[in-house]
Structure formats: C-alpha cells, structure tokens
Amino acid sequence: MSRVAVLKGGPSLEREVSLRSGTNVELALGRLGHEVIPIDADAHMVRALREARPEVAFVALHGRGGEDGTAQEILEILKIPYTGSGVLASERAMDKVVSKALFRNADIPTPHGYAFSTEAFSKMGAADALPEIQQSLGLPLCVKPARQGSALGISIVRSPGDLGGAILNAMGFDDRVLVERFVPGRELAVSVVMTKDPWALPVIEAVPLGHDFYDFEARYTPGETELRAPRDLDEATAQDAAAVSIAAARTLECRGIARVDLILDDEGRLWVLEVNTIPGMTDTSLLPKAAEVAGMGFDRVVADMLDLAALDT
Fold first, then answer.
1. 150 in active site
2. I need a labelling partner for 311 at 20 to 30 A (CA). Which of 106, 125, 132, 140 fits?
C-alpha cells in the first residue's frame, strides 16, 4: 500500500467541486488500504508536500491552477509521480482554442469556431467583426471562456443582438474567448483509459432536466440531470464514440484516465467538444457513472488511476 497525497481544493472557481471529488477519492483510497494525506492546493502546497513525503499524488483538482499543468509542473519539480495527464497534455486540454486546433489538424470532428482575446476587442476593434462571425457560423452559437471547466461562463446565443453580451460574460472568466457553432444534439461522454493499448468505458449520456444544456447547475445539483447509458445507441455509434474519444485524447498526448465530451447531432454525426484530463469524481459526475455501468465500481477506478500515476520525465 502507498502513502498518497490527495490534492484538492485550490484557488480556482471550481474549488468546491474539487473538494467533493477529493473527499470521495480519499474515502476510496482508505477503503483500498492506502495511507491518505489530504492537501489543499493553496499557497502552502509545496511545503505540505515536502513535509508529507508522499510516494504518489492523486490530483483531484479542477479548473485553472490544477488542471492546466500548473500543479503538474510542481509535482514534476518535486519528483512526485501523479495521476492524470502530464504538463503539456494538461495545458493543451485546458485551452479549448489550442485543443480544437489540434483536433482539426488531426481530422477529428469539432465544431468550427473563432477565438478572441480581450486585447483584440479593446485595442483592435474585434467587436466590429461580430457580423462576419455570425454570417460564417450561423445561429445558434456557443460562447465559452477558453480556459475554464464545468461549463462556467458558457452562453448559448440564439439572437444576433446577444453575441456581444455573451462574449463580455465569457471574458469575465478568461481573457480569451471561443465563439463556435452550437451543435444541437445529445450530450455524450466517453471516459478513456490511456494505456499503451487505450480502451474506453461505456458511453454515458447527460440529459439535463429543465436546462438548455449541461451547465454548471445541471452538473452538480442532484436531480438536475439524468446520467444514463443510452440503450437506443447502436453499437456502431458507440464504437465510433469510443474511437474518436481515444483519438482526441491521444492527439493531446493524455495519459491515465480522461473524459471526452461529445455531441451526437440529429444526423448521427459525432463532434468532439473537449477533453477533461481530471474527470470529476463527485456523486453526480460522469466517470463514476461510467464505472458503475461497466461493473467496475468507484474504488476500482480510483485504484486504476493510482496505478497509472507517473512523471513526464
């Protein structure tokens, strides 16, 4: 059995979600017989890690600072193996603009979009190009911060006059914003295990109840979303979802267990939205549901994630 530091909390907007993930992971590690050391990823994290001297770190952080390569870089410096993807893959996955460009280069289907920085709007007059964006992409549009998770700051724009306000809202969460074509359809998630021979857990569908899309409230409020293994999904589509999800994670060079979010549109086409290098481990999260459907159970997933812990170098 190992001495495991569980990194959770941190300063991001997803702190409370991370604390919930971390607590569930700690309980599972305890049941598995490991010595568990909870560590809040705050200004004292490095000191706490040095004092604790863990053999491995389980990263249960969500959002900026924990999911973007920052915490991973610190663990690399301290030579502490950790769960999830390495520094570069974490950076790529966290930045939706970068990951979408890599997807396109790899011929992975992803909604077309444009990216803007606050500087482009404040100093280069990018707001005057909004009509061209709408003409190119059509309506509705999805506007999102480039580097946030849990659907924070995302808006669906259905009216031409609402695009500017949606961009300003997203800029409240990040200084770079992605405007992409909104693809209506079924919201699917595929958790992938990125070993030498990658494999995928069952497809899970998120069906928000009373929400336009799978937003923050729908994700983390019990009873707001139905998570299910879609029985009406044909085997070929399920296999395609697994294959494109593995391809997306491989393109970003992910390791460990990652979750890929997709849309299955009304014509049966799959679109990759993003890759999550640190999937949520809360009671309402998608990876635990996939593990349940696969007959693995939560503790087995935690054990597998720990077994795949590594360093970049």
1. yes
2. 106
